[in-house]
Write a structure and sequence with these properties.
This protein is mostly helical. It has a domain of 52 residues. It is built from three helices and no strands. The two termini are 23 Å apart.
Length: 75
């Protein structure tokens, strides 16, 4: 993983509540879930990013497009 940079994003209150609940159950930092979500989107739309390399597997070894929403919600 490369150097991390600071950025600001605006999310809905429902998204914030769900991320906090996910963190409380899993003890995984909210920022890590946000980074994984970004990787999922970048992989999904990689064909729109010419010259970009495919991102690797997620920490559990699966490719991002193999995960379901339910799997992401499971602590």
């Amino acid at each position: 993983m490369g150097k991390k940079v600071t950025t600001t994003v605006y999310i809905t209150e429902d998204q914030q509540r769900a991320l906090r609940l996910l963190h409380d159950r899993s003890k995984v930092p909210v920022a890590e879930y946000i980074r994984q979500g970004i990787d999922l989107i970048l992989n999904k739309y990689q064909d729109l990013l010419p010259g970009q390399m495919e991102f690797g597997a997620l920490p559990n070894g699966q490719k991002p497009d193999a995960l379901t929403i339910e799997e992401l919600r499971t602590p």
